[in-house]
Amino acid sequence: MFENFWFYFSKLDIPESHHVVFFAEDESATVKLKEFLQMKKLPSSQFILTSGYDNLANAQNGETSFFGFKTEEFGKLVSKRPAHILHTLSLGYKAVLYTDADIAWLRNPLPFLSEMAKSGGYDVLAPSDGVRNGNTYYCTGFMYFLNSKGSIEILKEWGDVALKGKATLKSQTDQDFYRTALYSHGPDYFKHGKLLSNRFANGVSIHRGDTRQNLKDGELYIFHANFVEGFQGKKKDLLRQHMWWKPDSA
Predict the structure, then answer these.
(1) Residue bearing the bigger pLDDT, 204 or 24
(2) What's the CA gap between 140 and 82, in Å, rounded?
(3) Cα–Cα distance between 40 and 86 in angstroms, integer?
(4) Which CATH number fits domain 2-240: 1.10.10, 2.30.30, 3.90.550, 3.40.50?
(5) 173, 231 in Cβ contact below 8 A?
């Protein structure tokens, strides 16, 4: 999945001043990532952070299995997301854009995100995965954080909620934890902007007419292969949209 992300990301000629930080969550992934970065002649020593897991992908009956969505193990894995973002902000960057690997970048979104955050006075920008209980259900797979007091506080709160949730709310996802942290405060706490799904498409909005037209016109920034579980399911979805790096693969 990472190879597909990098295939599209590297085509955008994003300036080197925008540093890329890779997060490898176990030792085997770290080794493979280092090999990939060396092959691409990228400075792997600066851009790899690990989370200390020995092995997240286990070989069973000759096949590789991964933590299932909404399992306790998956919850432990994704609960590290706010800590990763906080750590990166602490390095002194003015803003951090977090992206999952199951996203195809079709246009460079950074100028748009920077301008939207500045003009709207937003601390955080993220796409919406719909509405739940009357509130926007923000996607945590693509998030733009300014290095601001509001962003740092919500990331700390998100991390705290996730840690508590692992013990008491195992059925919830990191998006639920983020939503709990987000809506536990009033609007003066910090400002959150919504990225429209006809430009920042997900697994549902990609089928809408306005999104399809934006894709045709070259106006789509990203396609996130969410609402589908597992590597093979996401790969099929990306292939269906002609956004897989090896179009002839089955």
Answers:
(1) 204
(2) 10
(3) 28
(4) 3.90.550
(5) no
d(CA 198, CA 220): 7
- Phi then psi dihedrals of residue 130, to 5 deg: 120, -160
Q: Are 81 and 98 in contact (CB under 8 A)?
A: yes
Q: How confident is the model at residue 69 (pLDDT cuts 50, 70, 90)?
A: very low
Within 10-109, where are the H helices?
A: 27-39, 72-78, 81-90
Dist. CA 120–CA 101, nearest whole Å: 28
For the chain, the structural domain boundaries read 2-240
Closest CA to 231 of 57, 66, 56, 63: 66
Q: List the beta bridge partners of residue 104.
A: 223
- For residue 23, the model assigns a pLDDT of 82
Which of helix, strand or coil describes residue 188?
coil
CB of 97 closer than 8 Å to CB of 144: yes
Cα-based angle 137, 142, 143 (whole degrees, multiple of 5): 80
Is 244 a residue whose pLDDT tops 90?
A: yes
Joined together, the tokens standing for residue 197 give 């799904």
- Residue 189, classified by CB atoms within 10 Å of its CB into exposed (0-12), middle (13-18) or buried (19+), is middle
* Residue 10 DSSP label: G
- Separation CA 30–CA 49 (nearest Å): 8
Q: Which two tokens stand for residue 144?
A: 């733009």
Number of H helices, E strands in the chain: 9, 12
DSSP helix/strand/coil, 186: coil
User: Whole-angstrom Cα distance, residue 42 to residue 22?
Assistant: 11
